[in-house]
């Protein structure tokens, strides 16, 4: 196995357990936490499977991906994602229950594969952060499609230097699933040969997916997810609905929550239009900032040898921060926010966690990972555990709504921190340095670098 960042920065005498035992601790935690998630689903929130029921019923008798005309089928989703949904129709034999089981098993498998890949290719810390994120979000991880684009983004960020064309292709596939990964190609572009290969991989793969969709389902169905999103209202969990939801919980009149035609709970009030405009303005600012940050990264990029797996060059570290910033900013700026959006953050958070093993990056990684983990934990409290109190028509629960407020504040904090650190890394790359030995690390979860060690350096 190739050396990881931790193996390069920590001497053997600083380990309490050999790598094999570290892997066993990780496997044990992942397995136990997923068993707890299963019990939680069975005991308290089996209703979260309803979305998967909807997928299964929508593709009944449509078992052949790509070749099927998807006009009128799951129009809110891009056609490549519907092709993915169709893959389970044939083995399920038309049984919704079997479809749900296969869907959950597939999602759990992807979850485990991502964790294992991070342990092997990145660091033990990165794998632990992925495992923790899944445990904190809960069983919803297995019953939403968002783990598919999250997998593509994780792969693209890991392979951006070693396999640049494949990294670009993975981002295109991710964008074919959920659109937002398309934003992440911008910070990966540049003047180097490696950057051009990433761009080419993205354009070629994206072009093929669009062409297949146009040929099989037509222009209207190909662009239907864009019109669907633009027509949606203000979802109750979004950052922009937070003031209205809080005032509603505190007894304000004229603020209603209803299940809309867009299959989501939305808030209705006279001021909704103003909040929606504010969201659009911030989204525009986010896009401009993304382009500015990407331009800075492109100007400072240099051709770098891939090096050993796990050794993260300064430019690649800055791109990882940029990806986290763009995703967190997208979640904040969007007028919709569903709990599964937190899955989008898993990969970038795990990759940023590799910085905990390097003196110049430990503080940044510590702040971002902490904010991400807290936001993820609060998300499970919001949905599914206290959601009924938030959407209650007659008596909205103040405590449940306050958890929602705290979660959104954490997401905003994460976005602000990520953007600040991304610009700092892009404008002021680290000077070459020799990593100092790390203090002893407990089994499984490794210690963070102490402040006195940083000051000595």
Automatic annotation (TrEMBL):
Lineage top rank: taxon: Bacteria
Annotated keywords: Glycosyltransferase, Membrane, Transferase, Transmembrane, Transmembrane helix
Coiled-coil residue spans: none
An example Gene Ontology molecular-function term: glycosyltransferase activity
Transmembrane segments: 23-47, 54-78, 98-119, 126-145, 165-189, 201-220, 275-297, 317-333, 339-356, 368-386, 398-420
EC number of this enzyme: 2.4.1.-
Name listed for the protein in its UniProt record: DUF2029 domain-containing protein
